[in-house]
Write a structure and sequence with these properties.
heterodimer, A: mainly alpha, 2 domains, B: alpha/beta, Rossmann fold, six-stranded mixed beta sheet, three-stranded antiparallel beta sheet, 8 helices, about 35% helix
């Protein structure tokens, strides 16, 4: 019963499970329920109470794909251009959408942060749910299309594609953690990031093949996190060539570096976040 | 003697206010990233006290004395510059006339959101939803977006959640200043019931009568220091005396941070 004395010894924020299995299960359940509630209410507020509103979220990248495909198919005569474009766009859309939401994730939850002790990292990560769902829908559609049209990628390549998505999600999460706490102190970070994303769209080989860039510049292009994800995913899914282990090692290094910086910045600024909202 | 549920030890907090406001990248760039002078405003200075299980402690002090900052530190929303707080129980804080609402969501979703942050499970929330809405007299407006609520309705909803979702320790900021006479009476009844159930309460109020009636003990906070820790009737009298002895226009440089 709610309001019963003693039930409150457990808190959602600083779980006092005491290490017992039952306590840990209860804490996990509380966290899952919190994430579910955050995601559900986010969707509801964003799409005005209608879950069908999610169709709008899918329409935006679909429309962009249609426009770019019409325009650039004339420029690049490669028959595989369309597939390359849609793989690139689907990954890019996630990157752009999730990072833009991530920057303002804590500010958007200011009404909670000021009033209760909230697990900030859960608030930041759950803000990416919308982008994550769009990514899941589009990547499933792409893989399904490849299978139906007789171009099914091998199991190992499919596994690699899954790993690249995980790598992308980790890098974006790290960015969101750091940027969301910094945004509370630097209030035009979202504008700065919008500009970076706009330029970054052309830095990443989304609408053009990386092959048209002189090879001596490739290293610098690969430093921009979406580039290796997009290029490796295309190689695995469309050309059937699994990137080398050296390439994978570089990607892993990039992921670890992003994660380390993101977590360090977040740990440094998160404790005082409530003072700045 | 039972162990304290809350131990506040040597807590100090100062806010560093820059001489020039620079909140954006643009401002930093145009100012050439020149360092700014900072002014320190000490809000809390070496505050220590204990709260034992089942106690009702009043917290009194004039505007800007640091009450809100102290409550936020006790609730774990702010971190102190020095000192520490030991919490041996869950805390439900109801600060600044209400918990946080998202105006784009209706009462039901807002209750789910704040309830799960306060550690309630979804079945518990579903079970108590009717009670919460009934307590706030908002059954008819359950599916109305909170942005269309009046401030009184929003505050009533906050207290209804707090009174249903209460953990061991309840922190109430100006509770008996909300709603009409009927709502206040229900708050008072529920308050007495919570006390009888053994809940621990920290009550912030400017109203000496409320502190005398609802608390056993009270703290007087003046300029960031606890100047009195005594039975509630003594503290409320001292508060009144000091209020009347004060010059009418108080230089209140801390008003915006307190």
């Amino acid at each position: 019963m709610i309001g019963e004395f003693g039930r409150g010894a457990r808190t959602a924020i600083a779980p006092t499970s005491g290490g017992t299995p039952d306590g840990l299960i209860a804490d996990c359940r509380a966290s899952v329920e919190l994430v579910w509630t955050l995601v559900r209410t986010d969707f509801k507020a964003r799409y005005h109470g209608s879950m069908n509103g999610f169709l709008w979220a899918l329409l935006k990248p679909a429309m962009m794909f249609a426009v770019l495909m019409t325009v650039f198919s004339f420029l690049f005569q490669d028959p595989r251009y369309k597939l390359n474009l849609i793989v690139g766009l689907c990954l890019w859309e996630f990157f752009a959408d999730a990072t833009k939401t991530g920057v303002v994730a804590l500010d958007a939850k200011a009404f909670l942060i000021k009033k209760v002790r909230a697990p900030l990292w859960v608030l930041v990560l759950s803000s990416m749910a919308n982008a994550l769902l769009t990514l899941a829908v589009f990547s499933t559609a792409i893989v399904a299309f490849l299978c139906i049209s007789g171009q099914a990628p091998s199991a190992i390549n499919l596994l690699c594609f899954g790993a690249y998505i995980v790598a992308l999600v980790v890098m974006v999460s790290a960015f969101a953690l750091a940027a969301s706490v910094l945004f509370l102190r630097v209030r035009d970070l979202n504008q700065v990031w919008d500009v970076v994303v706009q330029a970054g769209f052309f830095l990443a080989p989304v609408i053009y093949p990386l092959g048209i860039v002189p090879e001596r510049f490739h290293f610098y292009f690969y430093l921009w996190p979406p580039t290796p994800i997009v290029e490796f995913s295309r190689a695995a899914l469309l050309t059937g060539i699994t990137p080398t282990s050296t390439a994978h090692a570089y990607l892993a290094l990039e992921v670890v570096a992003c994660l380390a910086i993101g977590v360090l910045v977040f740990r440094r600024f998160a404790p005082r976040a409530a003072e700045y909202v | 003697m039972s162990r304290a549920l809350l131990e506040v030890r040597g807590v100090s907090k100062a806010f560093s206010l820059p001489s020039v406001r620079r909140n954006t990248v643009r401002e930093h760039v145009f100012a050439g990233f020149r360092p700014r002078a900072h002014q320190r405003h000490v809000v809390l200075d070496d505050v220590s006290f204990d709260v034992k299980p089942g106690e009702a402690v009043g917290l009194m002090g004039s505007n800007g004395c640091g009450k809100s900052t102290l409550l936020k530190i006790v609730s774990g929303i702010f971190v102190p510059d020095s000192g520490h707080v030991v919490r041996r129980a869950g805390i439900t804080p109801i600060l600044e006339l209400g918990v946080g609402w998202n105006g784009e969501l209706d009462a039901v979703d807002n209750v789910h959101l704040i309830g799960s942050l306060m550690g309630l499970s979804l079945p518990e929330l579903r079970n108590s939803l009717d009670e919460i809405l009934a307590f706030a007299e908002l059954e008819a407006f359950a599916n109305l977006k909170v942005k269309h609520y009046s401030s009184g309705m929003a505050a009533r909803l906050a207290y209804a959640v707090a009174f249903q979702a209460v953990r061991e320790v309840l922190i109430l900021d100006e509770i008996f200043a909300v709603g009409d006479a009927g709502f206040r009476r229900r708050c008072e009844e529920r308050y007495q019931q919570l006390r009888a159930d053994g809940h621990t309460i920290i009550l912030v109020s400017h109203d000496p009568r409320a502190v005398r009636t609802f608390c056993d003990r009270a703290l007087l906070l003046e300029h960031g220091r606890i100047t009195m820790d005594a039975p509630s009737h003594q503290v409320s009298e001292a508060y009144l005396t000091r209020l009347h002895a004060r010059p009418p226009v108080d230089a209140a440089p801390l008003a915006h941070v307190g």
